[in-house]
Amino acid sequence: MPTRPSRYERVVTSLGFAKKYNFPLWVVFGGIMLGFALARFHYLSDAILKRDLAPGEWYWFSKPRYNTGLKIHLACILPCGIIGVFQFLPVIRRKALIVHRIDGYIFLLLLWISTGAALAIARRSFGGTVETQASVFALSFVSLTSSSLAYYNIKKLQIEQHRAWMLRTMVYMGAIISARIIMIISGLSISAVGSYWAFQNCDELSAVIDNSTRFDKDYPTCKSSPNTLVPIRAAIGSGDNVHIENVSSIFRVTFGMSVWVAILVHFIGVEIYLRLTPAESERLRMVSYERQLERGWVHPGSGGLTSDRWGDAKWSPVLVEDVPERAGK
């Protein structure tokens, strides 16, 4: 008598997952991305931005140029992240392929626009230091490159390569979430060390410090030279020597580094996953082979960014008649 599938198995099957391990991965990592995106839609309001941005950030992002850039970035990247999560839901690809395709084009458009806006505001994000601008550029570069290669491969019907590059795209996008966690950990560590400093100009300080008496007392040079850069110790906490400008310096010191570390962690993580799932890649390559063969292409199975086309590894299809179990022998 056949065993009745459990409730978990029924849910997994109804959503189209062929492998049981894919469902919890989708729930955990997709859920994090979905929650992060939904929780930040309220940043499209200036009142919320002014209240919740890191100390010192509102000085720059209240200005029309950077405010518009930030709003464009958020208005595009947040729905982009939500669409990306559901693009990995198998039931949509199998039962509503046209929806999957349309969402894919929308995803790419939103990603490209949001990335352009992110690059435009990087000069003022968390102090706009060189390492911050470089980290934003690096994250933008790997995200746009991987998404472009995913598009190229699906147009060439190279489905396993499309899967790999879309996985990379989503994982790279998620690096900005991990960067927040790394910022908290590194901020506490740097504050404990107590020997890290960041520069802030007097205009930024005056916008952060609402007590004019303390501002004039602690930063007398700003009165005579408003454009002066002042070194501020990076610290966080509730001590007598810790003020809001010290917290602002914490973010300036840690943001660029945190993004770089997050990119590295996510880069390694997605490559490990792809190498742990070669069977799925091979299955999808056979699907690519069959679809390209139907189109009459010269080298079916190698239409996109494959190793045998661009490298020295040769590939040949594993046909049904070559496998006794599949051929019924």
What does this 3D model show about the protein?
This protein has 329 residues and is mainly alpha-helical. It has one domain. The protein has 17 helices and 2 strands. It has a two-stranded antiparallel sheet. α9 runs antiparallel to α14 and α10 packs across α14. The radius of gyration is 25 Å and the shape is elongated. InterPro entries: DUF2306_membrane. It comes from Choiromyces venosus 120613-1. This is DUF2306 domain-containing protein. It holds the Pfam family DUF2306. Keywords: Membrane, Transmembrane, Transmembrane helix.
Keywords:
329 residues; mainly alpha; two-stranded antiparallel sheet; 17 helices; disordered C terminus; DUF2306_membrane; DUF2306 domain-containing protein; transmembrane; membrane
